[in-house]
Amino acid sequence: MSLTELTIPQLFQLADQLKANRKNEEVVALYRAWLAVNSVTTAYAVWFNLGVELGHLKRHEEAIEAYRAAIFCYPDFLPARFNIGAQLEQLGRTNEALATWRAILTLPPELLDTDPALHQLTLNNLGRLLEIEREYPASEAILAESLQRDSNQPHVLQHWLHLRQKQCAWPICIPLADLTPLQMWQAASTLSTLALTDDPEWQLEGTQRFIANKVTLIDMPLTNVRDYAHPRLRLGYLSSDFCLHPVALLMAELFELHDRDRFELYGFCWSREDGSAMRRRIIHAMDHFIRIGDMDDARAAQCIRDQEIDILIDLHGLTSGARPNVLAYRPAPVQITYLGLPGTSGHPELDYVIADNYLIPPEEINYYSERPLYMPHCFQVCDRQREVAPPQQRAECQLPTDAFVFCCFNNNYKITPELFAVWMRILHHVPHAVLWLLADNPQAQVNMKTAAEQAGITPERLIFTTRVAPPVYLARYALADVFLDTFPFNGGTTANDALWMGLPLLTLSGRSFASRMAGSLLTTLGLAELITTSLDEYEERAVYLANTPDYCATLRQHLQTRRDHSRPFDMPQQARDLETLYLSAYSERLMQRAAQAQTIKRLLHVGCGKQNRTATLPLFMSNEWLEIRCDIDPDVKPDVLASMTDLRVLNNQSVDAVFSRHNLEHLYAHEVSIALKEFWRVLTPTGFVIIICPDLQSVCAQVAAGQLTTPLYHAPVGVITALDILYGLGSSIAAGNQFMAHRTGFTRDTLITALKTAGFGRVAVVARAAEFDLWAIATKAPLNDANWTHLCEKLLATQ
């Protein structure tokens, strides 16, 4: 059939077949060829599909041209207009993308009503990109409009809430559509929740809701009962924050101090390439630095598994940019969360969380899905190599020279209206004081000044500083008198920075991890008097500090004296303590797996290729079975590199089942008996083998009817004919894969004979004529009738 005779449905069907075989470039060529000889009015659909394929190939400029051609053919075709915006965003042309989506919203209502889902999608994408561009008021308004149209959008509601937190738009929860305050709270992101409540039970429920909705838990982990026995334990650090980010600013020296005689470091990164000295430093500190940003979660997890990582340390948790689905594949036998998320992840595949006795007291352990690993002193590491700019004068930062300066450089979203009210009362009681805050965004600045004025405090007593380079930021701490911490989400890196620079810090500790971070630091430094447990006590202590400058000076001297000789700033000792925890966790998991291994059954998956247990039977997909992948091709990274005729790498009676799908036919006839005897040898006395192979009897019936090249069925690799079943997949052999040649074959009776001759005690073979294959089950021992019937029903019922 010529291209001019090919209808659009037929064209799309052909394209789908090419895509199924991952021939995406050929799909593009097909569409272009068809468009070159056809000019039907419905060609807009072909142009649109061409744009989609070009977008998948990251040929964004060409995709935009295809979408424009679709619009030329059909001016009211909204999906093409929307996708142009998406391609412009991919190209980094943000303003053009925003303008494109805004233009869609100006179209006549009757046109938008023809595709309400796309209308909603346009609002959400516009709001999302505006948030990325820090245009918070506009983003909030757009997302509110989206929620008014459909309030059942938890992800949109989550962003709307966090936008209000970032802008200090109090109260955070205001009437919107038909949403209740409870629904709003339940939609809050993990970070939002940490700043809303110090109730660890509520936080655990929130993370578990996220995991249930967003994470696909895998039935077949990439690692299970496994010990790689490396001479050095392989530590994999997983993060998108290996750049100028608070986590990196704390962790850099730890990476450099790890004992390379005992540990080998791998960095798995999807961080932005910010060109910073910090990023270069972290890359240099790793023994291996692997970028996984262009990999999907499955490929990223497999990449980690391929490196045989012993302990994977997630530095992300559920913070922005997290990839919890990578962890869901269980790419490492031991998985730990540390530092990135100050709370529980709720992730069932994270085994441990690094903490200390102050951070997670015994009475709160039940609200953590991970088991705490307690550092002997303080959970937090830091970087002693932090560069500090030359000292500054208060006037340079618009600070009065004679005032008492309270400061808080925590993110604005951590400031709650309740805490801000306390700050205003503190300023009321200390007339000579000012409050120095981070200018996170203009709207937050306006809202806090308005709230101050409403509380009877002159807005000028709130002084805002912009974000500056880390050395300048650190130097500014010398200009303040006391750091006022936030609650219920304490400062993490900022608290560490303030104390490192000798600035006394006043905190309020609650029940949650996030509300006890600063308290952990202060406890370790011997400054428990700066830890409060209620807002009233916090207010009273702050006023006391402001009115006793000599005491503040004593506290500053204490910090400067202890800085280089106490935890958490003794980084060599902190590194050794953390390594001790890693080793203990690894040993514990080894013992657990050893005990588990006694009850786990071992499946030898012969000729696994690129497939795993998903290509076997449902029986083998439970955690009761450990898959051992066996193949002759090292490129598929099997657990056992061996052929069916030589399994000497496996001990006698070492596996409970053997599964072989379409492997025997690739052997020569004289090799079949050797392979079957090898299967019999490695099986335990109660073991069994499942074999699937072509049924020559049903195939020969097709040949006798003259149907040698007639398509019998469609497989993922394409159309299968009788000729393919007899001699091997023709297209694959033609491509040079000689392993695909078939060298022998069976009927039901000959396969039964072969299995019995090899020594199997009981055998059953089912011929599935409609599928042209045989399913065989054979046990090593001659089972009694009841056990045999039970096994056959359990296995062959899944065919």
What's a concise summary of this model?
It is an enzyme of class 2 (transferase). With 799 residues, this protein is α/β, with parallel strands linked by helices.
Write the layout of secondary structure elements.
Layout: H1 8-20, H2 24-37, H3 43-56, H4 60-73, H5 78-90, H6 94-105, H7 109-112, H8 116-132, H9 136-149, H10 154-166, H11 181-187, H12 190-194, H13 200-214, E1 233-239, H14 246-257, E2 263-269, H15 277-285, E3 288-291, H16 297-306, E4 311-314, H17 324-328, E5 334-337, E6 352-356, E7 371-375, E8 404-408, H18 417-429, E9 433-438, H19 442-454, E10 462-465, H20 470-476, E11 482-484, H21 493-500, E12 505-508, H22 517-524, E13 531-532, H23 535-547, H24 549-562, H25 571-597, E14 601-606, E15 625-631, E16 640-641, E17 655-661, H26 669-682, E18 683-694, H27 696-704, E19 711-715, E20 718-721, H28 722-727, H29 730-734, H30 748-757, E21 762-768, E22 773-779, H31 785-796
Parallel strand pairs: 1-2, 1-4, 2-3, 4-5, 5-6, 6-7, 8-9, 8-11, 9-10, 11-12, 12-13, 14-15, 14-17, 15-16, 17-18
Antiparallel strand pairs: 18-22, 19-20, 21-22
Helix pairs in contact: 1-2, 2-3, 3-4, 3-5, 4-5, 5-6, 6-8, 8-9, 9-10, 14-15, 18-23
